[in-house]
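== Sequence entry ==
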Amino acid sequence: MWGIVAGLVSYPVFSWYSKRFLDDQGLESGFTRLLLVFLVATILSSALGYGVSWLTTPAHTRSTQAVLEKKSTAILGKEISCLQNPSSSACQSAAQQGKALENKLLGSLSGGSQH
């Protein structure tokens, strides 16, 4: 939560300083400069927000988040490989497991009776 607040509060400050810096460098006003200011302010405020969020998050939560991120990345990697080759045995097995899980979840929602 504090990371979001820090990012939102710091964005106008980073934007203002970026504009002043580009004025000092002699870059003319225009779309390129506007885009550059936007990117610099966005990157800096996001980095600050991430840093504040990282500092205010307890250590045990950070390790749990890291494990979840690694698992999510692995799942996404498998899904992308299945998109490239959907007929592979691993993809077929995953599809069957997903279908079984879906049936199990839908069965528990309908009170155990499946239609």
User: Anything to note?
Assistant: The chain is about 85% helix and 0% strand. The longest helix spans residues 31-56.
